[in-house]
Amino acid sequence: MTTVDYVDAGEAVDQGNLSGKVAGGEVAPPVTAGIDYERILHAREEPQNWLTYYGAYDGQRYSPLDQINTENVKRLVPAWVFQAGTTGLIAGASTYSFEAAPIVVDGIMFLSGWDGWVWALDAKTGVEIWRYKHAVPFDVSLCCGNVNRGVAVAQGKVFFVTANARMLALDARTGKRVWDRTYGDVRAGESATVAPLIVKNMVIVGSSGGEFGVRGHLDAFDLESGEHQWRCYTVPKPGEPGAETWPADGEAWARGGANCWLTGTFDPETNLLYVGTGNPAPDFDGEVREGDNLFTDCIIAVDVDSGRIRWHYQCTPHDLWDYDSIGECILFEQDGRKLLGHFDKNGYFFVLDRTNGERVGITPFVDRITWGAITRDGQVTAKLYPDKEGEPVHFYPGPAGAKEWTHAAYSPKTGLFYVPVQDTGATATRRRREFKESIPYWGAGVQVDIEDMAGSVSAFDANGEEKWRWRNELPMCASVLATGGDLVFAGEPSGEFDAFDARTGELLWQFQCGSGHHSSPTTYMVDGRQYVAVPVGWGGWAEGFLPGMLGAGHGSALMVFALPEPV
């Protein structure tokens, strides 16, 4: 027997303290002190700002700003660049990606990065004011890259989640931590990537980790104190409504997935939060979870005061293809009806009555759909799926979907939806495995196609009729942005940032950003000048949506564009 003398290695140094920008060292103006529920309700009335994740509660990703328009967009030039950079080791045996949507309030930008980074920047110059770094354990379980999709701001605070499933509030002036709450079990494989949503006196977030066999949930915290307000589980336990859609014996429900890892939308008149839920677990082995598996692959309407599900619509019952329905729920009105539009990973565009979940329309939005079919009256028929052990099955779309998590936009000016489309297939081979906590629980080996793929930015009306399509050789893997200047902005995997005519689809402007796009651009105005900001940084779960570019340069820059200033 040997004796080992352990040497005190001291304490780890926070990387944020080695940047020259220490939290509290510099102070931002108190621009978020006046941000509250009422102001976010009327976000469109101050188009110079981008106050919340989608720009407004309706999820339209539309700005009325029109200084940059179809006539002058060809003159767009870089205004400034913020280099986030990469330092040291990052958590998880996976790659990072710059996926955030920049928030802007009265000339100050708040931006999150991967691995626990948050920055406050001067939105006019790009000068960094402060930065915060959360210490994320290196061994946290992450299925799909070390990513974060954005922050929320209200009452003088910046809210964000971390990869190790924590909800944090920072002082928006200094970047110093105000409160910190844990809302997921990292030992079980839970994590967090979602941009928080402020509703009333609450900050609402969802969990990640469906690929590890966890039970998904939404959580609400008090803005001021961080006190937990409610939790909404998205898989029912025995005895609850929907439990009959899971096996009666065993614990399939307890590891059923249905994580809500994208930000929801909200209608103050219905008092409902509209959220898409993720895949069931295991992703591809349906024999261990017979039934429709509610509330996986659903659009759920949650009462924001109680956290209870009021209605649901399931897009892919008994999912065998990893078709999360986490995509945004875009709220709009037509012919006096309050509607909701949702582009699902399964390749279909769903329009629902958002007051009760009634189906209004279903149409395909991608060319190749072979996994099955959904009729206009909602009947789902599965055709190709990995049902036999060791037998490969090829299907379209692949598990990243005909549209990944990246967002569509809707312009109330044109009445059109603009969608980043991925036309890519995959082969899944069922491989049954015993459930073990924090170990990936896919139920198959998956290989996404590296050839015979395509993409597009496509425009649809609310009836599902395609109005135009801009075709690309590669899938479109980034969110789009629509503006009052009749423009649609979208980024390509190969680095180009594009501006299209919102009415015709004509490509009007293009700029090579040096790395692929997998984020959500936003637009704002400072001192009478409109800017368009887009985080650029390829990576994340690239093997799932474009494996042929897995080795492409990551990048880690925020690019900001504007028209030239008058000489």
Spell out the key features of this protein.
567 residues; mainly beta; Methanol Dehydrogenase, Chain A; 2 helices
Task: Give the secondary structure arrangement, pairings included.
Layout: H1 37-41, E1 62-63, E2 77-83, E3 103-105, E4 108-112, E5 117-122, E6 128-133, E7 152-154, E8 157-161, E9 166-171, E10 177-182, E11 197-199, E12 202-206, E13 217-222, E14 228-233, E15 265-267, E16 272-276, E17 298-303, E18 309-314, E19 330-334, E20 337-343, E21 348-353, E22 359-364, E23 372-374, E24 380-382, E25 392-395, E26 409-411, E27 416-423, E28 426-430, E29 444-448, E30 454-460, E31 466-472, E32 480-483, E33 487-491, E34 496-501, E35 507-512, E36 522-526, E37 529-536, H2 542-545, E38 557-562
Parallel strand pairs: 1-32
Antiparallel strand pairs: 2-38, 3-4, 4-5, 5-6, 7-8, 8-9, 9-10, 11-12, 12-13, 13-14, 15-16, 16-17, 17-18, 19-20, 20-21, 21-22, 23-24, 25-28, 26-27, 27-30, 28-29, 30-31, 32-33, 33-34, 34-35, 36-37, 37-38
Descriptive account of the structure:
This protein is mainly beta and 567 residues long. The chain has one domain (31-128, 144-562): Quinoprotein alcohol dehydrogenase-like superfamily (Methanol Dehydrogenase, Chain A, 8 Propeller). The chain is built from two helices and 38 strands. It has helices spanning 37-41, 542-545; strands at residues 62-63, 77-83, 103-105, 108-112, 117-122, 128-133, 152-154, 157-161, 166-171, 177-182, 197-199, 202-206, 217-222, 228-233, 265-267, 272-276, 298-303, 309-314, 330-334, 337-343, 348-353, 359-364, 372-374, 380-382, 392-395, 409-411, 416-423, 426-430, 444-448, 454-460, 466-472, 480-483, 487-491, 496-501, 507-512, 522-526, 529-536, 557-562. A five-stranded mixed sheet has the order 1-32-33-34-35, with no helix packed on it. The chain has a four-stranded antiparallel sheet with strand order 2-38-37-36, with no helix packed on it. The longest helix has 5 residues, at 37-41. The radius of gyration is 22 Å and the shape is globular. It starts with 36 loop residues before the first helix and ends in a 5-residue tail after the last strand. 57% of the residues are buried. Belongs to the bacterial PQQ dehydrogenase family. Its EC number is 1.1.2.-. GO terms for molecular function: calcium ion binding; oxidoreductase activity, acting on CH-OH group of donors.
